[in-house]
Design goal:
EC 2.7.13.3, rod-shaped, transferase, PAC
Length: about 525
Amino acid sequence: MTHLVDENMSSDAAVVFQHFFELSVDMLATASSDDGTWRSVNPAFERILGWSKSDLIGHLIAPLVHPDDLERTQAASADLDRGASLFEFEHRLRCKDGSYRWISWHAAVREADGLAYCIGRDVTARRAAEERQAFLLNLSEGLRDLAEPVEVQKFAQRLLGEYLGATRVGYAGDVGDGVPAQISIIEETAQRTLIAVERARAETALRRSELKYRDLFNSMDEGYCIIQILYEAGRPVDWRFLEVNPAFEKHNGLGNAVGRTMRELQPAIEPKWVDIYAHVAETGESLRFEEDSQALNGRTFNLFAFQVGNPDDKTVAVLFQDITEQRRSEKELRESEDRLRVLVAELQHRVRNMLTVVRSMFASTAETSENIDHLVDHFVGRLDALARTQVIVTSSVDQTVDLENLIRDELLSVGVHDGPAVEIEGPDVALSSKIGETLGLAFHELTTNALKYGALKAPNGRLNISWHVEMDDGGASKLHLCWAERGVPAISVNPSRQGFGRELIEDALAYRLDAETRLEFRSGGVRWSISLPLAG
């Protein structure tokens, strides 16, 4: 410190000066104007550049200067020798690890000792930000008049390659590991390129003049605003709207926003919004994201937020769109697709079951048919009965079958109506599709038999179909139904022929529906009764 402390300075002042010298966050140094060597440096040199005092004192300054900055540095030294002062002279100094940092110097030569007294400040971050901003500005300027997406991509690739010193630049879904600043500029370039591709023609008009920009600003469908982040005790707590476009209010419902803060407009706004915008303002990272806000009536937004203006101003531009209805429609579409898949699965199940029934019905009909005409007649009739049941099932919202409609449809298919010869009575009963399909076939067989041999053929024949529902001991509903014919003059009380209809009524119903059935061939006509649980 021989060359730094004035000999006339008191000891106390010297101690104070020494403390300032040692503790300063800026780089403080003296250098010889005669031989260009360092004479004293403070600890900030080692913290910023990595060089210790022993590395520097007595050594030349010039070897540390970036080759591209050496000529300017020598000219500045000559100015100092002539008595001039340096103010914010910036050049790059080599660090101990081989990298370079930008240092801004204030310096003057003291005549008493011939030393240059220097104060240096690390401005690397600022220079990097300026270079980044200049690159992004050049990128935006270059994209201004490009209307074709391919041209936009080629231009952005070339400019990014020049900025990064890369020989080849392409597009990929993942930039991988790398220097964060490079990753950030790559992501920013990709974002801006994407915007240019999507809005190339609009941006051409937008950048040609302020008037055209304003026209687009006022007419664009998306909401747009510029906001400034507000801090309390160093923490972001709110933001102020500096500028909004006419579509702003349409998308978020906030009126008269310019000059007011978000919490003035909506005190209940979620803290996550402040955190997101503050991140953009503080890091310069552009974000494209979707987010919802219960405070803004449950709206969902698609947003693109990016830093604008001086980074110290903490201003952010936000381009956004209310996509609540779009997301609601997508949700309804997904739900509709889910319901469709369920219906298709049910349909496939029903078709498989139906084919099983048809196959069984055909086999049984074929076994008991006397000839091909007999087979066709009976099989077509049974298919028609099955089809009628399916019409009833598919026309019902809850996929159920009304018992009375099932009976009447079968009788109407052969021209039989209510009247003196036919009585139908019973309460409303909704059958499951499974029960309806099976009972529908049973009613078809009984109707066909009555039409050919029974009460629907005999002049004095009578048919009574009645039912009621009871609760069993377990609280389950049970249907009791009776088909009773009378007035049939001649009928075999014990027919020997065992056809499909009889197998269905006596055996299949019991197996498929867990039913109890009884078929009686009385002297006055057929009587059939069935009891089955309605939960089937």
